[in-house]
Amino acid sequence: MRSSAIAAVATLAAFAFTACSDDEPTKPEDAGGASRPVRIGTKDFTEQFILGELYGQALRAKGFRVELKHDIGSSEIIHQALAGGGLDMYPEYVGVLLSEIAGRRERPRSPTAAYRAARAFEERGGFTLLAMTPFSDSNALAVKPEFARRHRLRTIADLGRISGTVQIGAPPEFRTRFEGLVGLAERYGLDNLKARPLAIGKQYRALEQGEVDAARISTTDGQLAGRGYVLLKDSRGLFASQHVAPVISRRSLRTHGRRLAAAIDAVSRRLTTRAMREMNAAVDEDGRSPSRVADAFLRRERLK
Amino acid sequence: MRRTLRTRITTRVVALSVTGSLLLATALVLLIVAVAGQRDASRTAFRSQEALTAGSQLEKSLITIENGLRGYVASGRERFLAPATQALASYPAELRALTRLLSEDPGQQRLARRIGGRIEDYVTLWARPLIALARARPPAARSVVITGGGRERLGAIRADFARLFERERNVARAREERAEQRSSLAIAFGVGGLGLVFVVAAGIALYLRRAIVRPVVTVAHATGRLAEGQLSVRVPADREDEIGDLARGFNAMADSLESSQVELERSNRELEQFASVTSHDLQAPLSTISMYAELLERRHGADLDGGTSLIDGIRDATQQARTLIRDLLEYSRAGRGQLRVEAVSIETVVETALEALAGDIEEAGAQVRVGPLPVVPGERTNLSRVFQNLVGNAMKFTDGGPPEVTIGAEPDGRAWRFWVSDNGIGMDPRHAERIFEPFQRLHGEEDYAGTGIGLAVCARIVEQHGGRIWVTTDPGKGSVFSFTLSAQEA
After folding, report:
1. Fewer C-beta neighbours within 10 Å, C or N terminus of chain A?
2. Is residue A237 part of a domain?
3. Residue B370 — very low, low, confident or very high, per pLDDT cuts 50/70/90?
């Protein structure tokens, strides 16, 4: 499997980078730094909420003051909030960061290369990336098995054979993203697609009820477990494999010292694909709250 | 005398005044509290109203920001952004004003802090990033707006605002009600207290009247009656306080006066008894002496050979002694005993007196002029005696010429002044007082007959009638004897 190989490489690379990229001079914590809270933002879907809780609770356990700001919005807006000083950090998908924030259209050769490029981009703006997670997820297009059978669909390119419009349930930014309608038109030449903006997580329901023909999903979504959706193969590599790395302001790292990065990295290191999927499913399928799911995980991993 | 502090009137009056003052002060304090409470309540209500206004303004600013943002993102026109930019600049001051004006209620302050935090999040995590994004990448901003993150945040803030406003209204209303209750209670207490003050003041006045004024008035009346001669008058003296002291002092004084009076009356009575006994007893031997002198002259007059003149001497001396004794009796009786007062025509009285003196008048060739005379209360016989003595005197002390006597009267305030004037020898004014004392004579008996008791008798009678007697005199030209009698019955 290509994605798992990438994930393994990325994990190793992340450790390597974490080990040697700590070139930021760290000052001892002063009283003001200790009392200033670390403001962690999350985007507007389940995995992000869980990630926010994981980082936040782990930091609190280490004695940091944390302000969690959930559900800020898509990468476009949350990155602006970070840049505007409203946040200190948020977990971001390296691929999205590169394609949508940095505006890079060409695919990096490897997750490590992607990570490096993204970090270089952030450091120009006064931010940096902490260690990547072992887990990766990527966006994908899912259809129901009957729909795939009827239209004999296997790859994304097969969508072009369908006469008439294909409705895709996706987050609003799908229309304007490269990993969205823009890229689908550019790489696959698909012009019969129409995006229907839905809040992340809502697209499964729309797909079930036949309101849309396909849905943009994330490969770590808990809703995928045991449903038998057909994921259309991305043969032209539009959807990048995405590891998560916390974007954090260097000022915050200076203020709080090495302990902050160490505590965050300790969490990131344990986030395997399986662990992330289980946690997503616990929230989206079992209806548990992100904060309890994160709490249970941190305790199990002795991070709390 | 046992006298505890508690019984002192001074103490009691001070205690009553202090009680009254305290009551009045309490009532005033309660009224002040009431007024202050009402003022506080209205101030609180006003503050709450201001807080609500500030809150509405803040809410409006947020809506302006959101609408401006959406307009700008959708159209890309800066003019949509202008009001939002303005509102972004003004909202912190509005938030501060709201927090300042909100009631001190901890729940409200907590809610206000939460709203403040949410607004801060809305601005830093939504509004400002969105503006920046819209400037840099308008299509991306449009895609972000679709999810409605800002609207949700705003909705949560507005829900909090609604809760805040409702609670603020409730808090203000509750405070107002509580203050109103408190102030009406205080007003009731204050008015009640004032009423109580009036009642206590009336009580104090009644008490003072009963405990001080009445006893003092009683003593004053008693003093008046004592002055009128009712020496037996006494006042109750069973109290232990200053009034008791006064009453006891009065009673002691009355006791002492009464005993002096009794003593005086006893000695007067003894003196009178002595005088009448003496004069009566003296008359008997005098009669005997006179009788023996007669017998001696009748039986042995021829043998005595010139001794008759000695017998005449005995007879004269005896006669003189008799006159003296008679006058003494008259003086001792004059002005004694109870007056039987009636309306007396002084004209009649003078007539009677002149009739009694008719012989003497004719003998002296005197001329008596009588002016118009009033009717006054008095005792006829005694007053007649006064005129008789005065006219007798006037005719007696002459230098030989025919006496001229004038009797007259004139009103003198609430009394009448009567006078008897003569053209006699007059006297040295230095003696004007002395002549009214008994047995005082200015001349030898060989010059003018009499025992010197007449004027003393006049003085006694006039004084008994409540008047006074005096003389104005001009040696060699004559004298005017004046006396006053009250015009009305006393």
Report:
1. N
2. no
3. very high
Label residue B219 left, alpha or beta by phi (over 0 means left) and psi (-120 to 50 means alpha): alpha
- Indicate if the pLDDT at residue A14 is higher than 50: no
- Find, among B127, B117, B67, the residue nearest to B95 by Cα: B117
Which structural domain, as residue segments, surrounds residue A129?
9-15+35-136+242-300
Average pLDDT (A48-63) is 96
CATH number at residue A199: 3.40.190.120
Q: Which residues of A touch B142 (CB under 8 A)?
A: 176
B143 → closest Cβ in A79, A80, A175: A175
List all residues of chain B from 91 to 150 with a beta carbon under 8 Å from chain A: 121, 124-126, 128-130, 132-133, 137, 139-144, 146-147, 149
Provide DSSP, B452-472.
S-HHHHHHHHHHHTT--EEEE
Closest CA to A102 of A90, A112, A93, A91: A93
Query: What total of structural domains would you count in chain A?
Result: 2
**Residue A224 sits in the same domain as residue A251:** no
* Helix boundaries (H) for A62-202: 75-83, 94-96, 111-124, 145-151, 183-188
3-state helix, strand, coil in chain B (%, to 5): 70, 10, 20
Where a domain ends, among A180, A202, A231? A231
Which residues of B143-267 form beta strands (DSSP E)? none
**Complex ipTM tops 0.85:** no
- What is the pLDDT at residue B278? 76
